[in-house]
Amino acid sequence: MEYQQKDRYNFDDLVEIVRILRAPGGCPWDRAQTHKSIRSNFIEETYEAIEAIDTDDTELLREELGDVLLQVALHCEMEREAESFDISDVCDGICKKLVYRHPHVFGDVKAENAEQALSSWDAAKMKSKSQTTCSDAMRSVSKALPALMRSEKIQKKAAKVGFDWDNALGAMTKLTEECNELNIAIALGNSENQFEEIGDVLFTVVNVARFLEIDSEHALEKACDKFVNRFTMVEQLAMERGIDMKSASLTQLDSLWEEVKKIQRKK
């Protein structure tokens, strides 16, 4: 199948190339894909774009946004083939949504700051989705989101109607309460109750983070990075001193861990 190569391509070229890849005589792999078969690809490409943002890598971000855009084009082409909708319909939909949800820009609603603009957006969103209660808004939060992100979104919606602690101290008190309940569940050996209480602890931790204006998902990512870095140094120290980590006592390993912490604090 022929396609005129160019020095520079645009959005329309992307749509056409994806159409060729999916057409008879195109790429066997692309033709075999479905929405569900490439679902994980979409998630992976999105997180790679996020990593580029976190590392301030502009060149990588340009590449990764292209990969995300490819996923959008593929899903749209599948629906075009099914005569459901195409990428033009998707563009039309998002443009109409942006205009409708920005009445403070395209209408007569006034918004003097970012908080008022967000309030205007939320009101327009609830109206467009026929949401009349806070519960409706909560249920609209995607269950496919990472649980920490979903927790924060749900809590913010509850806070908008006044169902919230006064400050971080109130949330911390609740966290202590939930930790105590988890301790009881552990002591009783009730696995079902332990599962529930672990969830309550995590949900409350997100609440504390929200009051401190900390992105809990990002904070946990950094905690994972910190753990890996420290563990790597612990492992290196153990090897240098002839310590077999598998047979070493927890006291020995904890001593190495504390030593690494002191080294890192001095840097």
Question: Can you give a write-up of this model?
Answer:
With 267 residues, the protein is mostly helical. 73% of the residues lie in helices and 0% in strands. It is built from 13 helices and no strands. Helix 1 (11-22) crosses helix 4 and helix 3 runs antiparallel to helix 4. The model has no long low-confidence stretch (mean pLDDT 95).
Feature tags:
267 residues; extended; 0% strand; mainly alpha; 13 helices
Question: Would you kindly provide a brief summary of this structure?
Answer:
The protein is about 75% helix and about 0% strand. With about 270 residues, it is an all-alpha fold.
In angstroms, what separates the terminal alpha carbons? 59 Å
Helix content percent band: over 70%
Number of helices in the DSSP assignment: 13
Low-confidence stretches: none
Strand content: under 5%
How would you sum up the major sheet? Answer: none
Decide which structural class fits the backbone: mainly alpha
Shape: extended
Q: What's the alpha carbon Rg, rounded to whole Å?
A: 25 Å
User: Average pLDDT, to the nearest integer?
Assistant: 95
H/E topology pattern? HHHHHHHHHHHHH
Query: What's the count of strands?
Result: 0
